[in-house]
Amino acid sequence: MLDEKAKKTMLRKIPHGLYICGARDESGEDVNAFTASWVMQGSFKPPLVVNCVNRESISHAMIEASQVFALSFLEAGQKDLAASFFKPRRRVGNKFEDVEFYLGAETGCPIVSDTLGYVECKVIGSVPQGDHTVFVSEVVGAGVHREGEPLILESTGWNYGG
């Protein structure tokens, strides 16, 4: 039998970086973003990124329709920026109101300017399981804004998982 307390404790010990995942609708007219933590590199050649996205989110529908997204890498100390992208847009309005961003050249997805850098990704496969979809994506663009240490979930005191 699964020990729920032990499961939660151990799954929360898996280290996660924090990213702002930018998405756009199929037409490119509407954009959104959310704080992502279930992200990892999946391959060197071709360069693949795995991003697990909550199936009930607006951004999930956008990624599913457009088949692209961008990940802006947060720097240690950017907990407030990460927090501003946690809540759904329908509850907090325009998340980009006070955040400088630009649209990626390869995907048209929003990239947050004040971050370590970014990767732009094109979905090449997806697996809907449980309450998230696992998007396997090829990196089609990348850039470095500055050097620094990445923000990790553990350093925020927050828990997402378990």
Describe the structure.
The structure is a single chain. With 162 residues, the protein is α+β, with helices and mostly antiparallel strands. It has a domain at 15-37 and 63-122 and 140-154: Roll (Pnp Oxidase, Chain A), CATH 2.30.110. Helix content is 19%, strand content 38%. It has 5 helices and 9 strands, in the order αββββαβααββββα.
Task: Provide the descriptors you would attach to this structure in a database record.
about 40% strand; about 160 residues; Pnp Oxidase, Chain A; two-stranded antiparallel sheet; 7-stranded antiparallel sheet
Annotate the secondary structure layout:
Elements (H helix, E strand, L loop, with lengths): L3 H8 L7 E6 L6 E6 L2 E5 L4 E7 L3 H9 L1 E6 L5 H6 L4 H4 L8 E3 L6 E3 L4 E13 L2 E13 L8 H4 L6
Antiparallel strand pairs: 1-2, 1-5, 3-4, 4-9, 5-8, 6-7, 8-9
Summarize the helix and strand pattern as letters: HEEEEHEHHEEEEH
Largest sheet: 7 strands, antiparallel
Number of strands: 9
Terminal CA distance reads 16 Å
Proportion of strand residues: 35-45%
Give the proportion of residues in helices.
Answer: 10-25%
Instruction: Find the structural class using helix and strand composition.
Output: alpha+beta
CATH domain topology of one domain = Pnp Oxidase, Chain A
Sum up the overall morphology in one term: globular
Strand order within the widest sheet?
A: 2-1-5-8-9-4-3
- In CATH's first tier, which class of one domain applies? Mainly Beta
Low-confidence stretches: none
Question: How many helices?
Answer: 5
CATH architecture of one domain: Roll
Question: Could you tell me the radius of gyration in angstroms?
Answer: 15 Å
CATH superfamily of one domain: Electron Transport, Fmn-binding Protein, Chain A
